[in-house]
Design goal:
Helix content: 55-70%
Number of strands: 2
Oligomer: single chain
Order of helices and strands: HEHHEHHHHH
Distance between the termini: 59 Å
Radius of gyration: 30 Å
């Protein structure tokens, strides 16, 4: 088979076939079996506008079937599914945000509103949907992840400050008294950093 070119090559690079699956040129029946869809579905894909249509190698004619490049058809299907999922997610996000506005804003604001138990249940559901959608977009960070990042950074800083006096003594040929002063200063810096990290983690809650 000839090498892929242009848009097909970029599409396959973005959505490669599962590892170990060989590429091949297939007819409509084989493509339907490979993608687990009916030939009727493939026929619908073939009559979409050209920019959205499933790519093919050879157009079918009377007595001759369409020919498809399996890797390209698979990548096209994956890209289409990803686009559909993104469209659905956008619609769900917009719907959840609109419902939240109609219910009076955030859950914290709703605490001051005279909502019925059913309305409160609905508001909580909307808030949960919005939070999950935002988390999926990585707009929220888990407190535990932030705490872990703080701790990792502090450990690196602590190790560097602990080693600094000895390194300065060697490279600058400092007397012991000067090294002790440097050690005291760095200990104060380390203590301040530790206190700041602890206060920052406490402010995040459990």
């Amino acid at each position: 088979m000839p090498p892929l070119a242009g848009e097909d090559r970029a599409l396959v690079a973005k959505y490669p076939m599962p590892k170990g699956v060989p590429d091949a040129e297939v007819n409509k029946n084989l493509l339907g079996a490979a993608l687990d869809v009916s030939t009727t579905t493939i026929d619908k894909w073939l009559v979409l506008p050209e920019a959205e249509r499933i790519p093919f190698v050879e157009r079918g004619t009377n007595g001759r079937s369409y020919v498809f490049r399996l890797s390209v058809a698979y990548a096209w299907r994956m890209a289409r599914d990803a686009q559909d999922a993104a469209t659905r997610q956008h619609a769900e996000d917009a719907t959840a945000q609109l419902r939240m506005e109609l219910l009076g804003g955030s859950i914290q604001d709703l605490g001051r509103a005279a909502l019925s138990p059913k309305e409160q249940e609905q508001a909580l559901k909307v808030e949960k949907e919005w939070i999950l959608a935002a988390a999926a977009r990585r707009e929220f960070l888990r407190a535990s992840d932030v705490a872990q990042a703080f701790e990792a950074s502090f450990v690196a800083i602590r190790d560097g400050l602990d080693a600094a006096p000895d390194r300065l003594a060697r490279e600058l040929n400092l007397p012991p008294a000067a090294v002790e002063v440097i050690q005291e200063i760095l200990d104060d810096v380390l203590h301040g950093a530790r206190t700041g990290v602890d206060e920052g983690l406490l402010s995040m809650g459990p």
